[in-house]
Amino acid sequence: MRAPADGAIASARDLVKIYGKGETAVRALDGVDVDFSRGELTAIMGPSGSGKSTLMHCMAGLDTPTSGTVLVDGADVGRMNQRNLTRLRRTRLGFVFQAFNLIPTLTAEENITLPLDIARQPVDRAWFDTVVDAVGLRDRLDHRPSELSGGQQQRVACARALVSRPAVVFADEPTGNLDSRSSGEVLGFLRRSVDELEQAVVMVTHDPTAASYAHRVLFLADGRLVGELEQPTAESVLDALRELGVGRRTGAHTASGPVDAGALALDGPHDGRHDGALVRDRA
């Protein structure tokens, strides 16, 4: 088995996930090898049923692989019992989901520190201040979720994911419920958390604009990695989707709805970068 790449904080080797048995079996992941590094934002894209959410769930210990190996921060996730998995998710992993999953009776500050409170760990106030300032919610800490906009609620969820200094943050369609302005705020924060705080973020998305905030984009189809794009822009992601045939299966989407790839010219948030080069899977 090939060793994890140098600097990888999370890795999978020959990862297979099969749901069901016999003729009804579905091979959601079909021998995936992948590495995620600290200081890198990785977007995962693919049509519905391609295995992108399954990959994230297996990497995060939320689902059990049928076979293969998952390593997170040096720990073999597949060999952990449920108690150790719970501890891993509580202390070494952060999660941001499409639904904000905030506790309505708690303030923004209490929602942010909730993972540490549950784990009965002290709050590092210096780190808390760093995260709160990065997310831009200093003046909203005493507000409850009902008093915050959707973008502010998702930024609270992002801060909560970072407050325990996790090895990896997994984000599943984090801007799916947000308008374009709020999406930009959340994606900008996730990118800054990588560039400035050396976080590792893995994000599942259907949105080429969201993917353009990443350092690289991985493309899945039928449970396999079929391509990779480095230094993406929204346009280069759309081009890659067309080249790989991924976009023809489901159509590309942005936060505003379906994209007419032939008519729409999107500028990514990092103007001046060269379009990334598409690297096909060598398997």
Q: What does this protein structure show overall?
A:
The chain has 283 residues and is α/β, with parallel strands linked by helices. The chain has one domain: P-loop containing nucleotide triphosphate hydrolases (Rossmann fold, 3-Layer(aba) Sandwich), CATH 3.40.50. Helix content is 31%, strand content 25%. The protein contains nine helices and 13 strands. The chain has helices at residues 52-59, 82-91, 108-118, 125-135, 150-162, 180-195, 208-211, 234-244, 246-250; strands at 8-19, 26-37, 41-45, 67-72, 75-76, 93-97, 168-172, 201-204, 216-221, 224-230, 253-254, 257-258, 278-280. The chain has a seven-stranded mixed beta sheet with strand order 6-7-8-3-9-10-13, sandwiched between helices. Strands 2-1-4-5 form a four-stranded antiparallel beta sheet, with helices on one face. Helix 6 (180-195) links the parallel strand 7 and strand 8. Helix 3 (108-118) packs parallel to helix 5 (150-162) and helix 4 (125-135) packs antiparallel against helix 5. The longest helix is centred in the middle third of the chain and has 16 residues, at 180-195. Mean pLDDT is 84; it is low at 248-278.
